[in-house]
């Protein structure tokens, strides 16, 4: 029997509270982001084949709202509700990840580099979010 879903999209709902220096995805609107993904998937008739799930901490809250898509293992950061249509239409429907939102560079075989030991600095205008290979674990 095939798996019940073709893809899973996980949205971090971790809440460290408003005073944590790392911030948290919940403080950045991840609950409404998850609802926006679910509404948009249902509106496109994709709710039966692509599942939007809540996740606990994805350990990227400083770069949140954090989203990860499986089975590809593509990690996104600083995702807003405005990004939902692009992620659905480009990545989930056409298998083309949205590079401008990716947290980690793809490697050969479709895998991404491991999360860096420290969180990468926000990119300056016109630069990539991909951490360098020297920062990988």
What does this structure look like?
By secondary structure, the chain is of the alpha+beta class. The chain has a single domain (7-135), classed as Glutaredoxin. The chain is built from 2 helices and 4 strands. It has a 4-stranded mixed β-sheet with strand order 2-1-3-4, with helices on one face. Helix 1 links the parallel strand 1 (7-12) and strand 2. The longest helix is centred in the first third of the chain and has 14 residues, at 30-43. It is globular.
Question: How far apart, in Å, are the first and last alpha carbons?
Answer: 37 Å
Quote the average pLDDT. 83
Q: Give the uncertain stretches in residue-range form.
A: 114-137
Order of helices and strands: EHEEEH
Q: Tell me the number of structural domains.
A: 1
Q: Please describe the biggest sheet, giving its number of strands, its sense, and whether it closes into a barrel.
A: 4 strands, mixed
